[in-house]
Amino acid sequence: MLPRTPLLTPRLCLRPYEPTDAPEFFALLNGDRARFNASFPDRLQAVQAPADATTALAAFADDWSTGRFYVFGMWHRVSAIYLGDICIMPQHKGQAEIGYYLAAGAEGQGYAREALAAVVRFGFEALGSQRLLIRCYTDNAKGQAVARAAGFVPELQPKRPLWFRNSDELGNIRRFVLARPQAVE
């Protein structure tokens, strides 16, 4: 099990959630529910009331202990304001997927880029990932800009069987990947 150690950047503290974070976690999700619905429907479905936030944060702690999912809350280091969250989920063949969201008032200040850089390091160093993936809706220009700024590059859509029923939805999602840097000898 990886230690539940915060990741510090010049302006941010990214740390695993604690039970006492539930009110802030719920308030952010509930306040931006309409904006987050398309990208984070599972999270919103799971957190519909304050008590659900407590349950979700306990599940995140369980996921951390099993290595299934690593979720970091994002706080401003000086003001201690909760800004959003960023997570990384190990997948198969050395790949891990990253997702993130910010409160509307925190957007446009470089926080997502700063947090993503820290989680990229965590993914390659602590998790040993060989490849990182970010998926964004095609109309999410901000999310794509954050991925590109961190060095992620667009990837062609994977080929799917013709019978795959959600093929139209796949056309609405862009995939961005970043390979583990090779050591210089």
Automatic annotation (TrEMBL):
* Keyword Disulfide bond among UniProt keywords: no
Q: Is the keyword Amino-acid biosynthesis in the record?
A: no
Its transmembrane ranges are: none
Top EC group: transferase
Protein origin, superkingdom: Bacteria
Return the SUPFAM superfamilies for the record. Answer: Acyl-CoA N-acyltransferases (Nat) (SSF55729)
* Name used for this protein in its record: GNAT family N-acetyltransferase
